[in-house]
Design brief:
single chain; mainly beta; four-stranded antiparallel β-sheet; globular; disordered N terminus
Length: 177
């Protein structure tokens, strides 16, 4: 009688606000395979989502502004920021034409994309056809997510400098592909 030892490994990720630790749990079972006709594949554990990684952070007035994403997918550069309230409420209204990034390799300025109907590919827009980005933080809503889409920089570019009115520039942001 043959016995097969099957080792199953599962990753358990525990997200803590103060500590980010990865814990690996390994279990071993003795399984009698004489009556098994087919072996079923072992499912892989899905990691628990962690808080976004900061690519660049600065404090503006009483808010912490963090660039959490700069990723190229196809021909589009997706940039995300989180504005987090630390004390009082705040309101920012920015002209979208003033938001851009500079490709650090070619020193070219790129503006936010528009769709076929002329709508800017950014949120939160002041209105659906607006040309202003509007975000506010308060005690009841202490965080705001900002999403921006730009034309992708060339493959040779590894970093960008993001320029936003009221927030200033975020220099040498690493982009992923």
């Amino acid at each position: 009688m043959k016995k097969l030892i099957i080792c199953m490994s599962a990753l358990a990720l525990f997200a803590c606000k103060d500590e980010k630790k990865e814990t690996t749990v390994t279990t071993t079972q003795n399984v009698d395979t004489t009556n098994l006709k087919e072996q079923t594949p072992v499912e892989k554990a899905t990691p628990i989502a962690e808080s976004p990684t900061a690519l660049s952070t600065k404090t503006v007035n009483n808010d912490v502004v963090t660039v959490t994403k700069a990723k190229v997918i196809g021909k589009v550069l997706y940039v995300e920021l989180i504005v987090k309230n630390t004390e009082d409420s705040s309101l920012y209204v920015m002209n979208i034409q003033e938001i851009n990034y500079i490709d650090d390799v070619e020193a070219k300025k790129h503006e936010i994309l528009k769709d076929d109907e002329g709508q800017y590919q950014a949120s939160p827009l002041q209105s659906s056809r607006g040309s202003k980005l509007q975000m506010s933080t308060s005690e009841s809503q202490p965080e705001v997510l900002i999403s921006l889409r730009f034309p992708a920089p060339p493959e040779t570019s590894k970093t960008i400098t993001l320029n936003m009115p009221d927030f200033g520039s975020f220099d040498a942001i690493n982009i992923t592909r």
